[in-house]
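Lab manual, section 2.4: Encoding a predicted structure.

Procedure: take the sequence of the chain (488 residues), apply the prediction step described in section 2.3, and record the output as structure tokens. A sample record is shown.
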Amino acid sequence: MAQESEIADDLDLDFEHTWWRKFVASTADSSLALSARNLCQYDITNKQHSFCNSLIIDTKDVKTLYTGKQYEGAALYNFGLSARIEKPLSIKLILGNYRAQFGKGLISGFSQTAARDGVISIKQSNSPLLYTPNGIASNIELGHHNISATYSRQHRIASLKDNHITYLNKYKTDKLGKTAETIHSFSYGFKHDLLRLGICYYDQNYQAAFSETHTQVPEQAIGFYTSFDLGKMALEQETDFTSEAVMGSYSTKYALGHFTNQISFRFATGTQFLPYSRNPFLLSGYGANRELDWLLKYAFTKHISSSVDITVNKDTQNLKVGKQVSRIWWDFAFKDRTTTARIKLKGLDRDILVLSDSLFIETIPLHYRVELEASHNLGRWSKFSYRMRYNIEEKSSYSKNSTYWDMIYSFRKKGNSIRVGLVNWNTNKRISLSNSGILNQQFFLGTDTRLKLDLQRNWEKMKLILSYEQSLRNSSICQVDFECSLAI
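Recorded output:
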């Protein structure tokens, strides 16, 4: 069971852009020599159109990646050029927008888990909205050893007051000021059979000073990573020392028979994370916390499994509404060749949700959530799926609780596919579907029922997708998406 965070960052709250997030998420590494994609969305209600496009030129040793987006007159783009040499050394070099990962991402990273094949990894950035370093990144592998160096300099968006930084925005906008940002880092990794070790030095500075001490991000950091995996037992840790604080993430996992037991502990003494790091906490968006998580899984049979996940987070500087919060999550799943079913029961403190959405302030102290997902193959070519969410937020008036459901019928055969279904939601707060990570996360607010239709036609080197969405409560709400992909 994935350990999902209950805290949505700034990018998640911008739920109007869900349509193109899926496009960006699917612009992954390609083995095609040339791949071009363009998506056009037209909002009939507001008479607005948006574009998102990508171009990938991939040869044996060099790959060029461009992604762009035009929305409400604003043009955003990412560009990167990567080269790889396999002999006599394995060398990867990226020019342009890049993402770098060390260990579990507490200093710099794009994932909360370390790479399976090493300690250090770099990749091209494929999101034109999200801020990423822009410069040069290199990664050299020689036997068991891995060395990486990065350098970035750019003028990035920041909230400024009297020429002082009050906040570093994670996504691009033309409504704020800019400040020069310089970053360089050096990392070393070692991997051999069951053992992985790593050390990272990270340095950054900004042209403008920070307005307050508690808003200042650390300028330097040094991190240490260790992983020891015996198969049925694994130990992993990362400890980082910054110019402002200390932070760490530790976990141990043990499998015995049908049981899998995992215990994790995470802490940070400072209030701010590094700008391109991953938040290690599941229940908090601030740095000064201690968090303990216990995950227990049990496989009853080959097709039936269950798990329990208990998380407790304590704010060590009392920056949140509540000083200590907790969550418990029970999961039961069935899966065979034709049918998949899963039910989740979750209980969590209100103060966790208040951190990212103030609409929850007046709700009950303890929230309960029920999630149900099921799918069944109707023969060789078709499938029916159903999802349901019910959030108990008001016991005095159950009509104020949040609900969501969708039912989808899909048919796929010989390059043609059809998906048709209904989506319904009713909420005064905010209800989310977050099973696929940030880029695929969807948010719903208000009340509506919508008809959705997706048509897709695949040829050997070309793909066309037409999506239509119509509100059944308000005939004026209608949206059409068209995507064309070409590969040579």
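Check your result against the sample. The CA atoms of residues 147 and 188 lie 5 Å apart.
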